[in-house]
Amino acid sequence: MNRILIFVCVLALLSSCTIPRPFDFQKDQTFTITVNGAVEHPGTLITDPYPTVEEVLKRVNVLPEGDLSAINLQTILHHKDVLYIPFKKMIPCVSINSGSLADLDTLIGVGEKTAQAIIDYRTSVGLFQTIEDLLNVKGIGEKTLAKFKERLCL
Of 1.10.150.280, 3.40.50.880, 3.90.550.10, 3.10.20.90, which CATH number belongs to 94-153? Predict the structure, then answer.
């Protein structure tokens, strides 16, 4: 009788115990990625798990002043990552129509003499209509213009 009572008690105890189940690893079905910096609409995106930077950038509009040169497009992003698109360092342009001798002298390949020639040309002929009009200034050729063309504006 004692044995039966003990057996019944053990069964009662075992039936009230929960048997641990193996841990259920559920992968996240979506990731949240925050994109800031030089994008049209900074904010949060919902993506498939483990997107690359390139995949995320296809979904946002990177501004023209965004600098992607230092970003590895194959980097894999994780849930709740923040992706920052830096802005290009803006170098102020030098106006060939209103720049001073000192302004023009900051251009690579332009010394004081060439800077003065630019000023003399615009004084005698008139304002430049295009950047390429600088080729009419004595001392400026194709190669010289190519050195500083990116820094120029009218």
Answer: 1.10.150.280
C-alpha to C-alpha distance for 110 and 129, rounded to whole angstroms: 20
Judging by DSSP bridges, how do beta strands 94-95 and 82-85 pair with one another?
unpaired
As a whole number of angstroms, the distance between CA 100 and CA 84 comes to 37
User: Taking the domains of the chain in order of start, what are their residue ranges?
Assistant: 31-85, 94-153
Structure confidence by residue, pLDDT tens digits, 36-94: 999 999 999 999 999 999 999 999 999 999 999 889 999 999 999 999 999 888 778 89
Q: Ramachandran region of residue 37, left (φ > 0), alpha (ψ -120 to 50) or beta?
A: left
Residue type, 64: P
Question: What are the C-alpha distances in Å from 59 to residues 35, 70, 133?
Answer: 10, 19, 41
Query: What would the mean pLDDT of 15-20 be, rounded to a whole number?
Result: 56
- The pLDDT assigned to 52 comes to 96
In this structure, of 9-13, 97-101, 107-111, the range with the lowest mean pLDDT score is: 9-13
Return the amino acid letter for 123: T
**Residues 104, 110: contact at Cβ < 8 Å?**
yes
